[in-house]
Amino acid sequence: MSLSHAEPGFAAPLALLDTRVRMETPEGIDLILRPAGLLSRSIAFGIDLMIRGVLLGALFFVLGTLGDFGTGLFMLALFLGTWGYMVLFEVLHQGRTPGKQIMGLRVIHDDGTPIGWSASVLRNLLRFVDMLPFGYCVGAFTCLQHPLFKRLGDLAAGTLVIYRDLPPQRPALAEVTAINPPLPLLLAEQRAVQAFAERHATLSPARAQELAAIVTQPLQLSTSPDPHYPVQQLNGIARSLAGSS
Amino acid sequence: MKQSLFEQRHAENWQRFSTRLETLEGSRRKSGSGAGFSREYRQICQHLALAIDRGYASHLVEQLQQLAMRGHQQLYRHRSQFTAQLLSFVLADFPRLVRAEWRWVALAGLLFFGSLTLMALLVYGYPDLVYSVVSPADVAEMHAMYEPAARRIGQTAERASSTDWLMFGYYVMHNVGIAFQTFASGLLFGVGSLFFLFFNGLMIGAGAGHLTDAGMGATFWPFVVGHSAFELTGIMLAGAAGLKLGWALVAPGRLRRGEALRRAAQISVRLIGGVMMFLLIAAFIEAYWSSMSWPAATAKYLVGASLWLLVGAYLTLAGRTPHAPD
């Protein structure tokens, strides 16, 4: 498997302009991953810290009533909370601690596969170095330096924190009559026309007209004094590309 | 084929695959939803490739991409045959690993036990030297812990078992913390591990030398001889793992630094697994055996010596011949 920054491959859909990475799998398809940046990760960590603090605080009062035995148990719980909380959640809960769950993040291996024990233990043990000299300075610095926002622990363990995808909304295409494209379109052109039709509801009319006017000439569309006419035509072509439904 | 026809024809399959993914994502328990999974996953992959190749609209491509991504996560799920792996790790893999990394283990051992022995001898010879590494308050605390008078109190009233629990928790927290520090700081080009190995060696050596010199050896040595076999070895191995990590950064060889680090880390983390095992055993012995005051000092020395022999034999001999669980 290879991780690459928007390599122009065969029939590559779109060159990726943002921080997304395309990863090829043995199945011959590309997965698109969106690495998570410093801020959302810090907030997720903060939430996890709070959860642990509250739980351990409550446990402290409950076990405190049991005397020395309770204190011993509390120390074991503290140990588990400090070193085990992240690992257990990451491995047993699909790469998500509660904080990451809330922030919509998850941890995976570099190659896109779900995280396993050794990588999780490693990235969480090495947290100790990322925390140096205070307040995650080293971790924040490496995170900001790295194109995939990895801290040192991630580098050593070969892991990646990504956003979980939200289910895509189905965009409503404009209700226009389908028009056959006047000339055969290349794949990229076809995608561009479709993308325009999908997004045109979110564009202001002036902007939509401006964009549509650009392609009137190259696509050899029929012209009309109505400024909205090219927009309708593009929508029509998109509809014909999608097929009637 | 037009996009809408393609969608019409397969939407049902996609919906079914999506529902199945939800069940799989929801729980790790065995369920019927695994049957035929890979066939459906392959089909999704094929549909995705077709959709991209035919230039279908991006919302459709994106939907298929997400299905493929989620399917990928489930198909390549981390498989854990935990018990079998643990057994083979304890019985053979860990000692083998330690022997394979003998260079780092030897270096860490030399640093740790070397500084420990040297400092103990120095402090024994020149008692005032103890104050150069240990603060007077800590020295006083050490005295309180190993005061021979405490032995007499200990003999009349055994420590309550609840206190053993307290100490077990404390030892786990404290010792494992030290070992993890020693390991993790190896990421700073090995300097951290070097420092912690050396520093801990000095501190422990100074304590041992001072207490022996102050006439408390009779309480100190029987107490530490048992668990030290696992505890000190554990810290040494944690240091070795850290040094390996650091060396990958200092001299990555023909690999890029990141790659060299990743490979070294994969080995080190297994060493750390063994270290945790050692330290848990050490904490257990320290809390429940070492603290007992009724066994005679001779018995404690005998048990201590056999534990040291056991650790040595385990690390040098275990797993030399392949066994069934491997």
Count of domain modules of chain A: 2
H and E order of chain B: HHHHHHHHHHHH
- Find the count of extended strands of chain B (DSSP E, 2+ residues): 0
Regions with little confidence, pLDDT below 50 for 5+ residues of chain B: 151-158
Rg calc of chain A: 26 Å
N/C terminus separation of chain A: 38 Å
What structural class do helix, strand and pairing data of chain A support?
mainly alpha
Helix residue percentage of chain A? 40-55%
Count of distinct structural domains of chain B: 2
Total DSSP helices of chain B: 12
% residues in beta strands of chain A: 5-15%
Biggest sheet descriptor of chain B: none
Distance between the termini of chain B: 53 Å
| Envelope shape of chain B | elongated
Write down the overall geometry of chain A.
elongated
Instruction: Calculate the mean pLDDT score of chain B and round it.
Output: 82
For the secondary structure, the number of strands of chain A is 5
Counted by DSSP, the helix tally of chain A is 10
Keywords (chain B): Membrane, Transmembrane, Transmembrane helix
InterPro entries (chain B): SpoIIM-like (IPR002798)
Pfam families (chain B): SpoIIM (PF01944)
Main location (chain A): membrane
Task: Note down, in words, how this protein is organized.
Chain B: The chain crosses the membrane at residues 104-126, 178-199, 211-229, 235-255, 267-289, 301-319. Chain B: Keywords: Membrane, Transmembrane, Transmembrane helix. Chain A: The chain crosses the membrane at residues 43-63, 69-92. Chain A: It is found in: Membrane. Chain A: Its main location: membrane. Chain A: Residues 36-157 form the RDD domain. The complex is a heterodimer of chains A (245) and B (326). Chain A is mostly helical and 245 residues long. Chain A has two domains: 38-163, no CATH class; 187-242, no CATH class. Chain A is built from ten helices and five strands, in the order E-E-E-H-H-H-E-H-H-H-H-E-H-H-H. In chain A, the strands form two sheets. Chain A has a three-stranded antiparallel beta sheet with strand order 1-2-3, with no helix packed on it. In chain A, strand 2 (21-24) and strand 3 (30-33) form a beta hairpin. In chain A, helix 8 packs across helix 10 and helix 9 packs across helix 10. Residues 1-12 of chain A have low confidence and may be disordered. Chain B is mainly α. Chain B has two domains: 3-75, no CATH class; 82-317, no CATH class. In chain B, 79% of the residues lie in helices and 0% in strands. Chain B has helices at residues 3-26, 37-53, 58-75, 82-100, 102-125, 136-146, 148-156, 161-184, 191-213, 217-250, 257-290, 297-317. Chain B starts with a helix and ends in a 9-residue tail after the last helix. The interface between A and B is large, with 65 and 66 residues.
